[in-house]
Amino acid sequence: MRGYSFFQRASRAFNDYPHLPKVLVLFTVSGGGLAAVCHTAYADAGQDDIKKKKVVVLGTGWAGTSFLKNLKDPSYSVQVVSPRNYFAFTPLLPSVTCGTVEARSIVEPIRNMVKKKNFDADFKEAECYKIDTVNKKVHCKTTQPNHLGGGIEEFTVDYDYLVIAMGAQANTFNTPGVVDNAHFLKEVEDAQRIRRTVIDCFERASLPSISEEERKRILHFVVVGGGPAGVEFAAELHDFVKEDLAKLYPALKQYVRITLLEAGDNILNMFDKRITAFAEEKFARDGIQLKTGSMVVKVTDRDISTKERSTGQTVTIPYGMCVWATGIGSRPVVMDFMKQIGQTNRRVLATDEWLRVEGCNEIYALGDCATINQRSVMEDIGIIFSKADKNNSGTLRVDDFKEVIHDICERYPQVDLYLKKKQLKNFNALLKNSEEDAEINIKKFKTLLAEVDSQMKNLPATAQVAAQQGSYLADCFNRMKICEANPEGPMRFRGTGRHRFHPFRYRHLGQFAPLGGEQTAAQLPGDWVSIGHSTQWLWYSVYASKLVSWRTRVLVVSDWVRRFTFGRDSSRI
EF-hand domain: from which residue to which, for each copy (predicted)? Predict the structure, then answer.
């Protein structure tokens, strides 16, 4: 009976205290008596406490791959979803178009990265077509060819945190005929198509039945867009024709023309004026026709219509191949998501300084599909002043701002940019510019900071920005638990306490513009500009170091060596 009473009490304890570790007692008969063996067991509730958070990453571009590579916390379960099962080093796409570098040399399979992670990570080759924020699900469909059987498969993936890194698509500006007749330069497949089309143009032009006029049209290559992608492709194509195709098709050399169309006044307008001037002069020497102030209004299968700003007239340009490299626009799924969350009047997703989509705490957006909606100082000017005015006196001296100066500069990066522009040492110098030791009221404070917000700028849609954002967000996820307990970010001006993390800050490391003929222009931090053959070797070394694996580094460098030794391959593959 005493044994039975013990079992009753043990059973009651299991039921009354489900959250505590349980002691499992096994009784065995040994030498005519009872022996007790104790084992500790844990209830199901304990297992739920350590349940891994589900992180879904949409996209395998620069932002998504950088996030995946730098995420190290094993408390997450990561699911990567993308229609492409590889990461592509997009700055080398112009080199792929002309055979300088092979397509497979610049791609790294995502599963190679996934298998190296020390936590639960998986990849699904599929396309996300809907984001359900209410139920925290993403709806996906397969992208494999139909000949595999079974048709299109649809499925959903649950998430606790969603990272949207889907990149962007080419922006046609609704110009008629662009989608049907022009080539884009956004994906590896685009570069491969361009490479085949260039060879097709030369092969067709070499046929004896082709007329002289038709031969000139076929060998006229038009590039629309004077940004880095368009300029680099025009330079690569010129080198391909001059160094390789002219030797293989000597009778066609005289017919080849390359035209670069730009709607603005200059090409490479995001670069220093010295680089722009050098690029335009070099293209003129190389015979690349540059037409600025030419806005494309229509593209057919044989002609491009442009409106000339100088005359207002519409000009028709016959062409053999057109490459459209004018800019980027949001993907349809991102546009639908923006409508769903009330961001209907924006070009891309708006996020805060911590890369969270505005209005969605568990959803982050990185790279070309998003932009940081930086808060303006004037919008919060009253709150900033009140945080410094602890005595509610209505007036402050410079010393009273000591406790909030660092938080102001960190929360509003435009303040630092404004100080640099005005050549002021720090925020104190801005305040003291008014009157030494004078009291500052809210009206004077507004006057001092009135021009600060003029320094607010959107970040460029570049691989460099996307990679830094992915790395930053991964670091935040790695330290999520630590920073929730001990916030390290700036003061919450519109609330209490501090933000968990420091806001994202982009660090510009410079930019390159290859101009052909083994010459490159570089604009590096500190307003340092370098142009010429030596900069080309700097370009080689930097791009080789930035490739994502030793495998791709070896392949790309070997392609460069092959090109120097044997020339570019002109096979139509």
Answer: 376-411
